[in-house]
Design brief:
The complex is a heterodimer of chains A (169) and B (341). Chain A is α+β, with helices and mostly antiparallel strands. Chain A has five helices and five strands; from the N terminus they run ββαβββαααα. In chain A, a hairpin with a 2-residue loop joins strand 3 and strand 4. In chain A, helix 2 packs across helix 5. The radius of gyration of chain A is 16 Å and the shape is globular. Chain B has 341 residues and is α+β, with helices and mostly antiparallel strands. Chain B is built from twelve helices and 13 strands. In chain B, strands 4-5-8-6-7 form a five-stranded antiparallel beta sheet. In chain B, strands 12-11-10-9-13 form a five-stranded antiparallel beta sheet. In chain B, strands 1-3-2 form a three-stranded parallel beta sheet, with no helix packed on it. Chain B is globular and about 60 Å long. The relative contact order of chain B is 0.13. The chains are: A alpha+beta (169), B alpha+beta (341). At the A-B interface, strand 4, helix 3 and helix 4 of A face helix 2, helix 3, helix 5 and helix 6 of B. The complex binds flavin-adenine dinucleotide (FAD), iron/sulfur cluster (SF4) and FE2/S2 (inorganic) cluster (2 copies). The site of iron/sulfur cluster has 15 residues of chain B, from loops.
Chain lengths: 169, 341
């Protein structure tokens, strides 16, 4: 089936079997292998990308369902020369060990911070009717869809907090 | 994944026609269906993608309540200001489920119809009456931690995994169903979900070709306190072992209204009118809460792998009732209903 996507700002056409997930389309058909496959079942978050600006698991959705969509992957967030604040802070704070979960962590954090800015509550938000604050507990809960086998969690949290601080300056 | 045809209708009529094909099945968020298709637990021959059906992605005020379109994403429903103020138990239940990524995709209709998390249902190498009628039940004598203890049958002890549905049951929500002849009907959740009996493969009363188009919430219960409490094996991103949704009102020291729904315990969100009635007109007390828990658990069938759910349910219910009646201070997850004047 033919479909059109805008990937990291560049429009393009694809012709895919309906069984191909967004994840496999990115990695196997477009050569964008920054997005990782951990579990292929929605359990680890390694495959997180933004579709039309929202974070989703690329392994649990079909490419053909997203004709016309805008997709952002880790390759579209920044470059080695000009990294996005989250990318820079993950490096500076040692927000990884093996690095396998890192693209998913960074894409998820990108979507998560937008949700926080929109005032979306989380499971640990005390009042549903007040603006949520960015605390350690909020970040941990909101990032719970991203597992890290190396357990770099404290530094991942630190990197996210630092990136937010950097953007505010 | 087995090969399938894919179609994306742009009207309810076209979707109805597409569902007429043999082996056709709706895909909405896809977060449950694709998971099961990858394991070949489900193998539809045609996927009918309803994501572009017009008008199903809105939350609208109606008759004092809300109409939630079947395609409203779990994240959007949880964050809707009307839900956060007037139906906080629904926001809490949604936010207690899955992850941020999954809630951005998962839909209201798909969440209701997600299938059980019984580990043997997920493993095609194991016997499972739900997956393959008559094959037997590998959960018998197996690992039953995630299984149900109420409303089960010898054929199947699977629990319904949804958090959202538990809150909807406590709120007396109704599901709007579109039939192939174009008519709409509205049913409560107890009329949507069937208990397993001898046919655990038949999980709902939906007829072939029927589409869930919306969920209706009645007018909010001003003056009530609502709570959702979920107990699971890790702090986040895990299915419920036991969960409780409560809507409770107290006037002049007496409980005047009480709706209690339970997750993790049964093949559908579990409510017990007899147990709720014990609360009405009484002053809140721990002894009373214990009596209600015994009534709820009356008839439970447990084994050594899940009998911990009895004590867990007693404690969760006692905590939720203490907080919603004011016997104990409210913690995160217990909220007053706020209705705009
Ligand atoms: C790792 C992981 C963790 C999770 N944790 C939780 C949790 O803690 N709590 C929880 O509650 N859930 C949890 N979930 C489940 C998640 O909530 C469901 O997968 C999701 O709600 C299903 O919605 P969907 O739109 O993606 O459904 P789909 O996968 O698209 O569909 C599910 C079923 O519903 C049918 N269907 C969908 N829409 C309609 C309609 N409008 N009319 C008729 N039939 C329809 C489909 O044919 C299919 O059979 C988890 C899922 C994953 C993968
Ligand atoms: S409990 Fe039900 S779903 Fe689980 S193996 Fe037995 S029949 Fe299958
Ligand atoms: S690869 Fe998608 S969640 Fe693990
Ligand atoms: S850094 Fe190794 S999995 Fe996260």
């Amino acid at each position: 089936m033919k479909l059109r996507w805008t990937i990291n700002g560049a429009p393009g056409e694809l012709d895919l079997d309906p069984r191909v997930t967004v994840l496999d389309a990115l990695r196997d058909h477009l050569g964008l292998n920054g997005t990782k496959k951990g579990c292929d079942h929605g359990q680890c978050g390694a495959c997180t990308v933004l579709i039309d600006g929202r974070r989703v698991n690329a392994c649990l959705t079909l490419a053909v369902m997203h004709d016309g969509a805008e997709i952002t992957t880790i390759e579209g967030l920044g470059t080695p020369e000009a990294p996005a604040p989250l990318q820079r802070e993950f490096v500076r704070c040692d927000g990884f060990q093996c690095g396998y979960c890192t693209p998913g962590q960074i894409m998820s954090a990108t979507g998560m911070l937008a949700e926080l800015r929109d005032g979306s509550p989380s499971h640990v938000t005390d009042s549903l009717t007040a603006e949520p604050e960015m605390t350690d507990a909020e970040i941990a809960e909101r990032m719970s869809g991203n597992l890290c086998r190396c357990s770099a969690y404290p530094f991942i949290r630190e990197a996210i907090e630092a990136a937010v601080g950097e953007e505010r300056e | 994944m087995r090969p399938f045809d894919y179609t994306r209708p742009d009207s309810l009529d076209a979707a109805t026609d597409a569902l007429d094909a043999p082996g056709a099945r709706i895909i909405a968020g896809g977060t449950n269906l694709l998971d099961l298709m990858k394991l070949q637990v489900m193998a539809p021959e045609t996927l009918v993608d309803i994501n572009r059906l017009p008008g199903l992605d809105r939350i609208e005020a109606e008759a004092g309540g809300l109409r939630i379109g079947a395609l409203v994403r779990n994240a959007d429903l949880a964050a809707d200001p009307r839900v956060r103020h007037a139906y906080p138990v629904l926001s809490r239940a949604l936010l207690a489920g899955a992850s941020g990524q999954i809630r951005n995709k998962a839909t209201t209709g798909g969440n209701l119809l997600q299938r059980t998390r019984c580990p043997y249902f997920y493993d095609p190498a194991m016997a499972c009456n739900k997956r393959e009628p008559g094959a037997g039940c590998a959960a018998e004598g197996g690992v039953t931690r995630m299984l149900a203890i109420l409303g089960t049958s010898p054929a199947c002890r699977a629990a319904h995994p949804s958090d959202m549905a538990v809150a909807l049951r406590a709120l007396d929500a109704e599901v709007e169903v579109h039939a192939p002849d174009g008519t709409l009907r509205r049913i409560g959740l107890d009329d949507l979900y069937r208990l397993p009996g001898d046919t655990p493969e038949v999980e709902t009363t939906l007829a072939p070709g029927e589409i869930i188009t919306a969920v209706h919430l009645p007018a909010p219960d001003a003056g009530a306190v609502q709570a959702y409490r979920k107990i699971r094996d890790r702090a986040s991103y895990a299915f419920a072992l036991v969960s409780v949704a409560a809507v409770v009102a107290v006037e002049d020291g007496r409980i005047t209204r009480a709706a209690l729904a339970f997750g993790g315990l049964a093949p559908r969100p579990w409510r017990d009118g007899r147990a709720e009635a014990l609360l009405i007109g009484k002053a809140p007390s721990e002894a009373l809460f214990a009596e209600v828990a015994e009534a709820v658990l009356d008839g439970a069938v447990t084994d050594a792998g899940n009998d911990f759910k009895l004590a867990m349910t007693r404690r969760a219910l006692a905590a939720v009732l203490a907080e919603t009646t004011g016997l104990a201070p409210a913690s995160t997850g217990t909220d007053k209903v706020e209705v705009p004047a």
